[in-house]
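Box 3.1. Reading complex inputs
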Amino acid sequence: MSKVFIIVQANEEARPIIEALVKDNLHAVVQESPAMVRIEAEGRLTLNRNTVEELTGQPFDIQQLHVNLISISGHIDEEDDYLTVAWNN
Amino acid sequence: MSVEIKAVEIKPLRNTFTNVAELIGGDKPASRYQEATLGTQAQTNMHYRPTWEPEFELFDPRRSAIQMREWYDLRDPRQLYYSSWTIQRAKEQETQEANFDFVESRCLHLSLSPEVKKLAIDVLLPLRHAAWGANMNNNELCSRAYSEVLISPAIMQAMDNLGIAQYLTRLGLMLEEPEILDTAKAQWMNGAAWQPLRHLTEDSFVIRDFMEIFLVQNFVVDGLLYPLIYDRFVDDSLTSRGGSAVAMLTSFMPLWFTQSSKWVDGVLKVAAAESDENKALLSQWTSHWRDRTITALTPIATMAFGDQQEIMLNEVIEQFNARARKLGIDV
Protein backbone atom coordinates (compact mmCIF):
# COMPACT_ATOMS: atom_id res chain seq x y z
CA MET A 1 0.00 0.00 0.00
CA SER A 2 1.17 3.54 -0.60
CA LYS A 3 1.54 6.30 1.87
CA VAL A 4 -0.58 9.41 2.35
CA PHE A 5 0.53 12.49 4.22
CA ILE A 6 -0.53 15.85 5.58
CA ILE A 7 2.09 18.53 6.19
CA VAL A 8 1.24 21.52 8.36
CA GLN A 9 3.16 24.46 9.74
CA ALA A 10 4.54 23.95 13.22
CA ASN A 11 2.63 26.56 15.19
CA GLU A 12 0.19 26.97 18.02
CA GLU A 13 -2.90 26.64 15.80
CA ALA A 14 -1.70 23.48 14.10
CA ARG A 15 -0.63 21.68 17.27
CA PRO A 16 -4.10 20.39 18.21
CA ILE A 17 -4.52 19.22 14.59
CA ILE A 18 -1.31 17.24 14.81
CA GLU A 19 -2.29 15.82 18.19
CA ALA A 20 -5.71 14.82 16.86
CA LEU A 21 -4.16 13.10 13.84
CA VAL A 22 -1.78 11.15 16.04
CA LYS A 23 -4.56 10.19 18.44
CA ASP A 24 -6.97 8.96 15.77
CA ASN A 25 -4.44 7.33 13.43
CA LEU A 26 -2.33 5.00 15.48
CA HIS A 27 -0.31 3.94 12.43
CA ALA A 28 0.71 7.53 11.61
CA VAL A 29 4.35 8.60 11.77
CA VAL A 30 5.27 12.16 12.72
CA GLN A 31 8.35 13.80 11.25
CA GLU A 32 9.28 17.17 12.64
CA SER A 33 11.25 19.48 10.40
CA PRO A 34 12.15 23.11 10.95
CA ALA A 35 8.88 25.06 11.01
CA MET A 36 6.79 22.19 9.69
CA VAL A 37 5.45 18.81 10.70
CA ARG A 38 4.77 15.92 8.33
CA ILE A 39 2.25 13.29 9.39
CA GLU A 40 2.56 10.24 7.21
CA ALA A 41 0.60 6.99 7.25
CA GLU A 42 0.07 3.81 5.24
CA GLY A 43 -3.22 3.86 3.34
CA ARG A 44 -5.27 6.52 5.07
CA LEU A 45 -5.28 9.44 7.50
CA THR A 46 -8.37 10.94 9.13
CA LEU A 47 -8.75 14.24 10.94
CA ASN A 48 -11.88 14.31 13.12
CA ARG A 49 -13.55 17.55 14.14
CA ASN A 50 -14.65 16.09 17.51
CA THR A 51 -11.14 15.10 18.49
CA VAL A 52 -9.77 18.58 17.82
CA GLU A 53 -12.67 20.15 19.73
CA GLU A 54 -12.03 17.89 22.72
CA LEU A 55 -8.38 18.93 22.74
CA THR A 56 -8.97 22.67 22.44
CA GLY A 57 -12.35 23.13 24.09
CA GLN A 58 -13.25 25.45 21.20
CA PRO A 59 -15.47 24.93 18.16
CA PHE A 60 -13.45 23.76 15.17
CA ASP A 61 -14.28 23.96 11.47
CA ILE A 62 -12.54 21.29 9.36
CA GLN A 63 -11.63 24.03 6.89
CA GLN A 64 -9.47 25.69 9.55
CA LEU A 65 -6.95 22.99 8.60
CA HIS A 66 -6.27 24.85 5.36
CA VAL A 67 -4.97 27.93 7.17
CA ASN A 68 -1.86 26.06 8.25
CA LEU A 69 -1.73 23.35 5.61
CA ILE A 70 1.46 23.14 3.55
CA SER A 71 0.91 20.03 1.50
CA ILE A 72 -1.34 17.02 1.32
CA SER A 73 -1.30 13.82 -0.70
CA GLY A 74 -4.05 11.30 -1.36
CA HIS A 75 -7.66 11.41 -2.47
CA ILE A 76 -9.49 13.81 -0.22
CA ASP A 77 -12.86 13.12 1.32
CA GLU A 78 -13.96 16.22 3.23
CA GLU A 79 -17.17 16.46 5.26
CA ASP A 80 -18.31 18.73 8.10
CA ASP A 81 -17.11 16.23 10.70
CA TYR A 82 -13.93 14.81 9.22
CA LEU A 83 -11.32 14.99 6.51
CA THR A 84 -9.81 11.79 5.18
CA VAL A 85 -6.94 11.34 2.77
CA ALA A 86 -6.58 7.88 1.23
CA TRP A 87 -5.64 6.21 -2.03
CA ASN A 88 -8.77 4.88 -3.66
CA ASN A 89 -7.04 2.62 -6.16
CA MET B 1 28.08 28.78 -9.35
CA SER B 2 25.28 27.03 -7.61
CA VAL B 3 23.83 27.96 -4.27
CA GLU B 4 22.88 25.11 -2.10
CA ILE B 5 20.14 25.82 0.37
CA LYS B 6 20.23 23.49 3.28
CA ALA B 7 17.76 23.24 6.11
CA VAL B 8 19.33 22.81 9.49
CA GLU B 9 17.14 21.48 12.19
CA ILE B 10 17.68 23.00 15.60
CA LYS B 11 16.10 21.00 18.38
CA PRO B 12 15.10 23.08 21.39
CA LEU B 13 16.80 21.86 24.57
CA ARG B 14 13.54 22.13 26.49
CA ASN B 15 9.99 22.28 25.20
CA THR B 16 8.38 24.03 28.11
CA PHE B 17 8.84 25.32 31.66
CA THR B 18 9.53 22.87 34.48
CA ASN B 19 6.39 23.88 36.37
CA VAL B 20 4.29 23.06 33.28
CA ALA B 21 6.21 19.88 32.42
CA GLU B 22 5.57 18.52 35.93
CA LEU B 23 1.83 18.79 35.36
CA ILE B 24 1.53 17.56 31.77
CA GLY B 25 3.59 14.43 32.20
CA GLY B 26 7.05 15.34 31.04
CA ASP B 27 8.82 17.79 28.79
CA LYS B 28 6.69 18.15 25.65
CA PRO B 29 5.34 21.13 23.73
CA ALA B 30 2.65 22.80 25.85
CA SER B 31 -0.28 24.92 24.70
CA ARG B 32 -0.48 28.60 25.56
CA TYR B 33 -3.27 27.82 28.02
CA GLN B 34 -1.05 25.35 29.83
CA GLU B 35 1.92 27.70 29.94
CA ALA B 36 -0.19 30.64 31.08
CA THR B 37 -1.90 28.69 33.82
CA LEU B 38 -0.29 25.50 35.11
CA GLY B 39 1.91 25.77 38.14
CA THR B 40 2.00 29.57 38.11
CA GLN B 41 0.64 30.26 41.57
CA ALA B 42 3.13 30.55 44.44
CA GLN B 43 3.11 27.39 46.56
CA THR B 44 6.00 27.83 48.96
CA ASN B 45 7.92 30.56 50.77
CA MET B 46 4.90 32.78 51.40
CA HIS B 47 6.66 34.37 54.34
CA TYR B 48 3.82 36.27 55.99
CA ARG B 49 0.39 35.04 56.84
CA PRO B 50 -2.51 37.33 55.92
CA THR B 51 -3.32 39.59 58.87
CA TRP B 52 -7.03 39.15 58.25
CA GLU B 53 -6.86 35.34 58.36
CA PRO B 54 -3.71 34.30 60.22
CA GLU B 55 -4.84 30.66 60.44
CA PHE B 56 -4.17 30.29 56.70
CA GLU B 57 -1.28 30.86 54.32
CA LEU B 58 -1.73 33.49 51.60
CA PHE B 59 -2.69 30.71 49.16
CA ASP B 60 -4.07 27.79 51.08
CA PRO B 61 -6.06 24.75 49.93
CA ARG B 62 -7.46 24.43 53.46
CA ARG B 63 -9.82 27.29 52.66
CA SER B 64 -12.08 24.59 51.19
CA ALA B 65 -13.43 21.39 52.71
CA ILE B 66 -13.02 19.79 49.28
CA GLN B 67 -9.73 17.93 49.07
CA MET B 68 -7.69 17.34 45.97
CA ARG B 69 -4.39 15.50 45.63
CA GLU B 70 -3.59 17.86 42.75
CA TRP B 71 -5.53 21.12 42.50
CA TYR B 72 -4.23 21.70 39.00
CA ASP B 73 -6.47 18.83 37.83
CA LEU B 74 -9.43 21.21 37.98
CA ARG B 75 -8.72 22.51 34.48
CA ASP B 76 -10.94 24.64 32.31
CA PRO B 77 -12.08 22.65 29.23
CA ARG B 78 -12.52 25.97 27.37
CA GLN B 79 -8.76 26.53 27.88
CA LEU B 80 -9.24 30.27 28.21
CA TYR B 81 -6.33 32.42 29.26
CA TYR B 82 -6.17 36.19 29.12
CA SER B 83 -5.64 36.67 25.40
CA SER B 84 -7.93 33.90 24.11
CA TRP B 85 -10.62 35.14 26.50
CA THR B 86 -10.37 38.77 25.39
CA ILE B 87 -10.37 37.79 21.70
CA GLN B 88 -13.46 35.65 22.16
CA ARG B 89 -15.32 38.28 24.17
CA ALA B 90 -14.37 41.02 21.70
CA LYS B 91 -15.99 39.02 18.90
CA GLU B 92 -19.11 38.48 20.97
CA GLN B 93 -19.19 42.14 21.93
CA GLU B 94 -19.16 43.07 18.24
CA THR B 95 -22.12 40.79 17.55
CA GLN B 96 -24.00 42.16 20.53
CA GLU B 97 -23.21 45.73 19.48
CA ALA B 98 -24.57 44.97 16.00
CA ASN B 99 -27.74 43.60 17.59
CA PHE B 100 -28.22 46.82 19.57
CA ASP B 101 -27.69 48.85 16.37
CA PHE B 102 -30.10 46.66 14.42
CA VAL B 103 -32.86 47.03 17.00
CA GLU B 104 -32.30 50.77 17.35
CA SER B 105 -31.99 51.61 13.64
CA ARG B 106 -35.20 49.75 12.80
CA CYS B 107 -37.00 51.00 15.91
CA LEU B 108 -37.86 47.42 16.89
CA HIS B 109 -37.90 48.47 20.55
CA LEU B 110 -40.75 50.87 19.78
CA SER B 111 -42.84 48.14 18.21
CA LEU B 112 -43.12 46.13 21.44
CA SER B 113 -46.61 46.05 22.88
CA PRO B 114 -46.89 47.90 26.24
CA GLU B 115 -47.57 44.65 28.15
CA VAL B 116 -44.56 42.84 26.67
CA LYS B 117 -42.33 45.83 27.30
CA LYS B 118 -43.47 46.16 30.91
CA LEU B 119 -43.04 42.44 31.52
CA ALA B 120 -39.55 42.44 30.01
CA ILE B 121 -38.50 45.37 32.18
CA ASP B 122 -40.10 44.00 35.35
CA VAL B 123 -38.38 40.62 35.02
CA LEU B 124 -35.03 41.51 33.45
CA LEU B 125 -33.91 44.83 34.90
CA PRO B 126 -33.62 43.89 38.60
CA LEU B 127 -31.47 40.96 37.44
CA ARG B 128 -28.61 43.35 36.81
CA HIS B 129 -28.22 43.47 40.59
CA ALA B 130 -28.17 39.67 40.67
CA ALA B 131 -25.46 39.75 37.98
CA TRP B 132 -23.49 42.18 40.13
CA GLY B 133 -23.87 39.72 43.01
CA ALA B 134 -22.43 37.01 40.76
CA ASN B 135 -19.53 39.36 40.04
CA MET B 136 -18.90 39.77 43.78
CA ASN B 137 -18.93 36.02 44.35
CA ASN B 138 -16.50 35.31 41.53
CA ASN B 139 -14.17 38.03 42.79
CA GLU B 140 -14.29 36.36 46.19
CA LEU B 141 -13.62 33.01 44.52
CA CYS B 142 -10.65 34.56 42.76
CA SER B 143 -9.21 35.90 45.99
CA ARG B 144 -9.72 32.74 48.07
CA ALA B 145 -9.24 29.89 45.61
CA TYR B 146 -6.19 27.67 45.34
CA SER B 147 -4.36 26.97 42.06
CA GLU B 148 -4.24 29.21 39.02
CA VAL B 149 -6.61 26.94 37.03
CA LEU B 150 -9.42 28.10 39.32
CA ILE B 151 -8.25 31.64 40.04
CA SER B 152 -7.86 32.82 36.48
CA PRO B 153 -11.23 31.67 35.04
CA ALA B 154 -12.86 33.05 38.22
CA ILE B 155 -11.84 36.62 37.44
CA MET B 156 -12.87 36.20 33.80
CA GLN B 157 -16.24 34.91 35.00
CA ALA B 158 -16.52 37.93 37.32
CA MET B 159 -15.90 40.33 34.44
CA ASP B 160 -18.40 38.44 32.27
CA ASN B 161 -21.03 38.88 34.99
CA LEU B 162 -20.32 42.60 35.01
CA GLY B 163 -20.72 42.70 31.22
CA ILE B 164 -24.08 40.97 31.54
CA ALA B 165 -25.22 43.54 34.12
CA GLN B 166 -24.20 46.28 31.67
CA TYR B 167 -26.13 44.72 28.78
CA LEU B 168 -29.22 44.61 31.01
CA THR B 169 -28.69 48.28 31.88
CA ARG B 170 -28.46 49.20 28.20
CA LEU B 171 -31.61 47.21 27.51
CA GLY B 172 -33.41 49.25 30.16
CA LEU B 173 -32.07 52.53 28.78
CA MET B 174 -33.19 51.60 25.29
CA LEU B 175 -36.71 50.60 26.27
CA GLU B 176 -37.37 53.37 28.80
CA GLU B 177 -36.13 56.62 30.33
CA PRO B 178 -33.09 56.45 32.65
CA GLU B 179 -35.31 56.66 35.75
CA ILE B 180 -36.28 53.06 35.04
CA LEU B 181 -32.96 51.97 36.57
CA ASP B 182 -33.97 53.53 39.89
CA THR B 183 -37.36 51.83 39.70
CA ALA B 184 -35.64 48.50 39.04
CA LYS B 185 -33.28 49.02 41.96
CA ALA B 186 -36.21 49.88 44.21
CA GLN B 187 -37.80 46.60 43.10
CA TRP B 188 -34.61 44.70 43.95
CA MET B 189 -34.40 46.40 47.37
CA ASN B 190 -38.08 46.34 48.37
CA GLY B 191 -40.28 44.55 45.82
CA ALA B 192 -41.80 41.49 47.47
CA ALA B 193 -41.08 39.21 44.48
CA TRP B 194 -37.35 39.98 44.57
CA GLN B 195 -36.64 39.66 48.29
CA PRO B 196 -36.05 35.88 48.37
CA LEU B 197 -33.49 36.17 45.53
CA ARG B 198 -31.81 39.18 47.16
CA HIS B 199 -31.71 37.27 50.46
CA LEU B 200 -30.09 34.29 48.69
CA THR B 201 -27.56 36.52 46.91
CA GLU B 202 -26.58 38.29 50.13
CA ASP B 203 -26.29 35.01 52.02
CA SER B 204 -23.97 33.73 49.32
CA PHE B 205 -21.63 36.69 49.94
CA VAL B 206 -20.64 35.32 53.35
CA ILE B 207 -19.78 31.76 52.29
CA ARG B 208 -16.13 31.20 53.22
CA ASP B 209 -15.39 27.90 51.49
CA PHE B 210 -14.20 28.74 47.96
CA MET B 211 -15.46 25.53 46.34
CA GLU B 212 -18.86 26.19 47.90
CA ILE B 213 -18.87 29.76 46.49
CA PHE B 214 -18.00 28.30 43.09
CA LEU B 215 -20.76 25.69 43.28
CA VAL B 216 -23.47 27.99 44.66
CA GLN B 217 -22.96 30.87 42.23
CA ASN B 218 -21.77 29.29 39.03
CA PHE B 219 -23.47 25.91 39.17
CA VAL B 220 -26.66 26.21 41.21
CA VAL B 221 -27.85 29.82 40.92
CA ASP B 222 -26.72 30.43 37.32
CA GLY B 223 -27.70 26.88 36.38
CA LEU B 224 -31.32 27.49 37.36
CA LEU B 225 -31.63 31.23 36.63
CA TYR B 226 -30.24 31.36 33.08
CA PRO B 227 -32.30 28.51 31.56
CA LEU B 228 -35.43 29.85 33.29
CA ILE B 229 -35.03 33.50 32.32
CA TYR B 230 -33.15 33.50 29.02
CA ASP B 231 -34.21 30.19 27.42
CA ARG B 232 -37.79 30.00 28.61
CA PHE B 233 -38.85 33.55 29.40
CA VAL B 234 -37.03 35.64 26.77
CA ASP B 235 -36.49 33.17 23.93
CA ASP B 236 -39.82 31.30 24.22
CA SER B 237 -42.43 33.26 26.10
CA LEU B 238 -41.57 36.86 25.08
CA THR B 239 -40.62 35.98 21.52
CA SER B 240 -43.91 34.20 20.87
CA ARG B 241 -45.67 37.39 21.96
CA GLY B 242 -43.79 39.67 19.59
CA GLY B 243 -40.84 40.42 21.87
CA SER B 244 -38.02 39.13 19.67
CA ALA B 245 -36.30 42.54 19.96
CA VAL B 246 -35.65 41.70 23.63
CA ALA B 247 -34.17 38.34 22.62
CA MET B 248 -31.78 40.14 20.28
CA LEU B 249 -30.67 42.48 23.04
CA THR B 250 -29.98 39.58 25.43
CA SER B 251 -28.54 37.12 22.91
CA PHE B 252 -25.16 37.13 24.66
CA MET B 253 -26.50 35.64 27.89
CA PRO B 254 -27.64 32.16 26.76
CA LEU B 255 -24.52 31.93 24.59
CA TRP B 256 -22.29 32.80 27.54
CA PHE B 257 -24.16 30.41 29.81
CA THR B 258 -23.49 27.49 27.46
CA GLN B 259 -19.78 28.34 27.42
CA SER B 260 -19.38 28.92 31.15
CA SER B 261 -21.27 25.68 31.89
CA LYS B 262 -18.44 23.81 30.20
CA TRP B 263 -16.01 25.24 32.75
CA VAL B 264 -18.30 24.58 35.72
CA ASP B 265 -19.02 21.01 34.57
CA GLY B 266 -15.35 20.32 33.92
CA VAL B 267 -14.32 21.40 37.43
CA LEU B 268 -17.15 19.70 39.32
CA LYS B 269 -16.79 16.43 37.43
CA VAL B 270 -13.13 16.11 38.37
CA ALA B 271 -13.70 17.24 41.97
CA ALA B 272 -16.56 14.75 42.45
CA ALA B 273 -14.60 11.89 40.91
CA GLU B 274 -11.61 12.53 43.21
CA SER B 275 -13.11 10.92 46.33
CA ASP B 276 -16.35 9.81 47.94
CA GLU B 277 -15.99 12.54 50.57
CA ASN B 278 -15.86 15.22 47.86
CA LYS B 279 -18.82 13.68 46.11
CA ALA B 280 -20.90 13.58 49.31
CA LEU B 281 -20.05 17.18 50.15
CA LEU B 282 -20.79 18.48 46.64
CA SER B 283 -24.08 16.57 46.65
CA GLN B 284 -25.05 17.98 50.03
CA TRP B 285 -24.25 21.58 48.96
CA THR B 286 -26.06 21.16 45.66
CA SER B 287 -29.28 19.82 47.21
CA HIS B 288 -29.31 22.50 49.91
CA TRP B 289 -28.67 25.47 47.64
CA ARG B 290 -30.84 24.13 44.82
CA ASP B 291 -33.87 24.07 47.11
CA ARG B 292 -33.15 27.60 48.32
CA THR B 293 -32.70 28.86 44.77
CA ILE B 294 -35.97 27.29 43.66
CA THR B 295 -37.77 29.07 46.51
CA ALA B 296 -36.07 32.33 45.49
CA LEU B 297 -36.99 31.95 41.82
CA THR B 298 -40.63 30.97 42.36
CA PRO B 299 -42.06 34.52 42.75
CA ILE B 300 -40.03 35.68 39.73
CA ALA B 301 -41.33 32.74 37.69
CA THR B 302 -44.87 33.67 38.74
CA MET B 303 -44.29 37.22 37.51
CA ALA B 304 -42.78 35.95 34.23
CA PHE B 305 -45.05 33.03 33.37
CA GLY B 306 -48.27 33.53 35.35
CA ASP B 307 -50.08 30.21 35.73
CA GLN B 308 -47.42 28.42 33.59
CA GLN B 309 -44.95 29.02 36.40
CA GLU B 310 -44.93 25.51 37.83
CA ILE B 311 -44.44 23.77 34.47
CA MET B 312 -41.54 26.05 33.54
CA LEU B 313 -39.81 25.73 36.90
CA ASN B 314 -40.19 21.96 36.90
CA GLU B 315 -38.68 21.69 33.44
CA VAL B 316 -35.69 23.74 34.55
CA ILE B 317 -35.24 21.72 37.76
CA GLU B 318 -35.47 18.47 35.82
CA GLN B 319 -32.80 19.70 33.42
CA PHE B 320 -30.58 20.84 36.32
CA ASN B 321 -30.88 17.51 38.18
CA ALA B 322 -29.98 15.60 35.03
CA ARG B 323 -26.91 17.82 34.59
CA ALA B 324 -25.86 17.27 38.22
CA ARG B 325 -26.23 13.49 37.96
CA LYS B 326 -24.09 13.48 34.83
CA LEU B 327 -21.33 15.15 36.85
CA GLY B 328 -21.51 12.42 39.49
CA ILE B 329 -23.39 14.57 42.02
CA ASP B 330 -26.30 12.88 43.79
CA VAL B 331 -29.37 15.09 44.02
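In summary: Residues 15-24 of chain A form the longest helix (10 residues).
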